[in-house]
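Researcher: I've got a protein sequence and the SMILES for pyridoxal-5'-phosphate. Could you write out the 3D structure of the bound complex as structure tokens? I'd like something to compare against our soaking experiments later this week.
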Amino acid sequence: MTTSLQTAFDRYFLTNSKESLKEYQSVMNQAMETLKSVVLEQTPFSGAKPQLIKKTLQSHFPNVHPDEAMNSELLFQRLKAAVGKHSISVHHPSCAAHLHCPPMVPGLAAEVLISGLNVSMDSWDQSGAATMVEQIMMDGLCRLFGLPEGDGVMTSGGTQSNLMGLMLAREHACMKLWNWDVKKQGLPPEQHRLKILCSDAAHFSVQQSAAVLGLGEDAVVPVKTNHAHKMCMKDLVEKLQEMRTAGEYPFVLFATAGTTDFGAIDPLMEMSRATKKYGLWFHVDAAYGGGLIMTELHKHKLNGIEEADSITVDFHKMFYQPISCGAFLVKERSSFAYMKRHADYLNPEEDDVPNLVGKSLQTTRRFDALKPFLSFQLIGKNEWSDIICRTLYLAKEAYSMLKSDGAFTPVHEPELSTVVFRYTGEGRFSNETEDFLNSRIRDRLLNDGEAVIARTKVNNRVCLKFTLLNPLLKTNHLMHLLQRIKEIGRYESGRLKDEQNRS
Ligand SMILES: *Cc1c(COP(=O)(O)O)cnc(C)c1O
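Model: Sure. Here is the predicted complex with pyridoxal-5'-phosphate in place.
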């Protein structure tokens, strides 16, 4: 290899050569500056339409794999103009649509180490210390959630954790009922009689998992929710008895601790009692509400979670970690045996070191555990509690503002940090007009880049939703946002009236 080629290569890989370290520092700085400019921009969104963004990208990057390398300064300038400028800025307080948090700085620092170390969590000989960090992180998390004999593994998020919970529940049930090993034998002959119970407000990943697990979406039996959007126990018991009579095998009760729309927490205690009585696996999807465990003020809302056979926790929601960062916990370590498999080239049975691949659906896997690990070290428990309590308090504040303003009808009293409401103006609109106005308000805020809020349907009527996951949001932000919603509502209803008068 020529010296010049060697020097060039040195710059592309991280080594201990001076050139490499200099290049690393320089490129990382440029990336940081690009990010800073996006954050400093302080608008939730540019409002650009998909087609315009595509055109902008095509003009800045006419060739996806150019023959000649681009100068890095120019590259970052273009990234700033084409990507940074048109990204949803989750750092902005008026970005309040989804369960999508502003990432905290310790998590961002961890990302630098995670990608730079580039260890992989599947086998000990690809990770070393990282495996131990993940394991002690999981042990700590199990203690936090009251599972002293438990175990866990990091996942890509709630979707994967829910799939794992339902999969282990299925394997466990088939073994218990028919001594049937699904891992080896596939689905049992009675497969169409296996049923999953969850509330009608559970996350859509339950249906998705049922499909992936070969049970089909029809295996999911939705239980009614009550006035507070929590699982109705009376309906649950009726459904369980009906299923028994029909010769069906409900095998898992899937609880949600924090539903996507209303942040409702199912009655975990009562549900856990039902699982014992009817011999069901108890899974708790705490993707959203799991953060409450960090607060003295609110953690009682999760009472009963310690009875779960498995739990879903998302760190990229109320734990403010960069995506992706989730965890799956089980009450009994041995539950992971249902999914364990061996590969001679990866984790042979005679290995006496921890190989985490046996607990995961992934093989090559990121060292995401470092994000919560670093964040728990750098932020004390009291401060965690303050951050999460503040996040929940904001929803209470938004709710009381909505309630005292005649132009709005709040749809529920917030339990976590979502607030669902409807713009009703002076109350003289038809339901359809209100639907139209609420949709318009959300679209205009997004298209003007003013705010990103969500739209959802409650009883088939269009509603607006704030998902407040930014503890830095201020009361005056909320006031301003509500003011703007009213202004847009008034303007749009005026336009509508003009149009009707003309026709
Ligand atoms: C977000 C969420 C999920 C899905 O989690 P991902 O991390 O997006 O995969 C599942 N259940 C609930 C209740 C959620 O809030």
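Model: The domain at 119-379 is CATH 3.40.640.10 (Aspartate Aminotransferase; domain 2). The longest strand covers residues 249-256.
Researcher: Great, I'll pass this along to the crystallography team.
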